[in-house]
Amino acid sequence: MKRARLPSLPPLRITIPAVLLLFATTVGLYDLHQNTRLACRRVEEFTRQELARRMSEQKEHLELLLNLRKTGRVQEEVASLGADPHIEAALLLDDTGRVVASNRRVEMGQPGRALHPELFTPETEPLVQRAHEHLAGSIQTTVDGEDLVARYPVRVSGDAGEPTSERVWMLVVQRDLSVLKNQARDQVRASVVQRSALLAVLAGLLWLFFHFVLTRRVARLVATAQRFAARDWEARGGLTGRDELSRVGRAFDEMAERLRTTQSQLEDRESHIRLLLDSAAEGIFGLDLEGRCTFVNRSALRMLGYADAGELLGRDAHQLWHHSHADGSPFPQSECPILRALHEGLEDHGEYDVIWRKDGTCFPVERWSYPMRQGGGQVGIVSTFVDITTRKRAEEAQHFLIEASTQLAELHDETHTLERVARLAVPQLGQWCLVDRVDDVGRLHRAAWVHQEPARQELLRELAELAPPDWSSLQPTVRVLSTGEPLLADEALAALRHAGDAGARYPELLRRLGTRTAIALPISVRGQTLAALLLVSDTPGFQYGPHELSLARELARRASVAMDNARLYRQSQEAVRLREDFLSVASHELHTPLTPLRLHLQTLQRALATRGDGVGTGRLMTKVDKALAQERRLSQLVDDLLDVSRLTSGRLRLRLEQVDLVELTRDLAERFSEQARAAGCTLHVTTAGATTGQWDRMRLEQVLTNLITNALKYGVGHPVDLHVTSSGGRAHWSIRDHGIGIAPEDLERIFGRFERAVSTRQYGGLGLGLYISREIARASGGDIHVESRPGAGAVFTLELPLEPARDTRDGTEVPSRETDRPEPPFAFPGP
User: Fold this and answer.
1) Which of 130, 153, 184 is at the close of a domain?
2) Which residues span the domain enclosing 154?
3) Angle between helices 489-496 and 476-483 (to 10 degrees)
4) Could you tell me the sign of the dihedral formed by the alpha carbons of 271, 277, 280, 281, in that order?
5) Closest listed residue to residue 676, CA positions, set 644, 733, 721, 727
6) Which residues on adjacent β-strands are paired with residue 652?
7) Residue 324 gets which letter from DSSP?
8) Residues with Cβ within 8 Å of residue 111, at least 6 apart in sequence
9) What pLDDT, in 10s, does the model give residues 631-664?
10) Residues 318-335: tens digit of each pLDDT
């Protein structure tokens, strides 16, 4: 807290006598005032007593004369009061307020109030009323204190023939006090002047004493103090003697010695602290309670752009470097967190703030503010800040690259990828952008053009069409595509301004688009330059530096990855298409030899059956039966592969018809009865009423067949239960086996393509049955669920809607969920 500056005083030889004179004058004036008031009060009291006595006597005398009806004598008595030079007015008023007697005959018979309004003010009404009612006289001092006004009632009895009671007249006398008070004042003034003169003589004597006895010694002490203040630490007063000034001089010399030692220590400590503060990388400044700068270190001066701390000390810090937001809008002091922390005595931390330099530019900082306290009270605040321009730029670049990676990862087309790259680059890396690419046959195409301002987008489109990329041109993108190396600053700008055969319109379009600086970068995939990115800026004073170049290269690298992914995606889609075509063709080609093989085996079977029961015939019949079973198994495998191809490519068709699920289940149970006996299983079918719906009978039979076959395969030697019911518009078909069961982690995996929960060598198969069954169920609007535990069998439940969904009606293709992502090439599972 800044101390108030004390006013300077003259030397003691002048001060003490002057103070004594001032004291004498003050006491004299006070004495004059008090004694004058006392004297005036005594004059007033004495006069009041004398007037009261005289009025009482005069009242009784007038009452006697009035009762004797001697009106002439009454007039003479009242007029005699005027003989006193101090009585200004004497009136006797009847009960109507008219003058009956006066010291001035001209006032006889006239209204008293009109003649002397100063005696009948509203303030005097209560006194007059009291005199009439209580017959009590009163004496009142006027407002200016220069007169006494006496009001005494005079009782007058009525005439002998009158029945009225006595009347009350009023004797009013105005007594002047000014003359007596002036005399009293003169006496008091003379007494005060005498005492003041004595004090003035005493002051003169004191002046002589101080001038000839003390002044030289005091001057010596003053000179020594001035030398000490000028950092002459060896200065000493050297006064000797036993008087008070000598003692003061010796105490001063002792203090000077101690101060010299302390000052030396303080200077060393201050120099060390200053060195520490100036060596700190953070900017540090201190503020007093009024927000003025009291300290600033070297780092703060450097960051703020000042050469000397004197330019900042004592000035309003908020108005100097914290006056505006980053966008240039005013920053009110009421919203300033530094001043709020200063006024509230709280700590404050700002992760992002803006400070303005001397040249009018600003930079982002992270700031901390802490209150400074001394002696239990706050004396200011200290703030430290660090320049976070690099960190903020890195954070913005990281956010930009993350956003770019996120957006580019969503694209699977090279052209769309390059368009997105151009939109990401503007306005982060320039005001407008052009992207050219090379197709698979080596032709150049302009892939994208984007301008920051929508109003200039049409101009940029015209420029792009006016100068299309060509291998023979000198455009920056063509040079980058040719060399695979970037073009920077002046080189890129010169190549951009090369009009070639574009004509006079080309430079005009460049001027209107804004072209101050430019860079061109390659977008390479696996060592091959497939596209070039041209970035152009029109910002005054801006140049592409290392940061912008690094950010642009990172964007180009991400664009390269995105283009590579797009090419790989396109290739994978083509591979998936070729795979599905191969599976489809292979399935049909495999069916071609299987059909005549089955016919020949069936013919051989019938021929053997007609020949009899010879031993050779029976043995050959058994082999034919096994060959037919293997042919059926091979046909089923081919059909499964064809179904997988159809499901993957979305070409599976459902032909809906009315199907009785209970009847279908009983037919399948009867069909699989012989296979169940061979596996040591018993098929039990239970139903809960008729269950009929619109389904594809062949595909539904395929699903149920897969589930029954699966239950008989893994539930060997145990009964298998089939249950059919319906509720809530959906059919529920379940099959329970009591076989080896399924581990919890495999419950979902078994529905994948070529997946199984057991060894292939033990149970065989391609692992496609459950996958095809679930896909058919989902294509029909239903699903398949499984519940199982190892060693406790499994329950597979098929749920189907009784009414068909819109996309599963007759003749519609079932869309496959697998076509939205690239798939690995088809491969048969190993043994």
Assistant:
1) 184
2) 15-184
3) 120
4) negative
5) 721
6) 814
7) B
8) 97, 98, 99
9) 666 766 666 666 666 666 566 677 889 999 999 9
10) 988 888 988 889 989 888
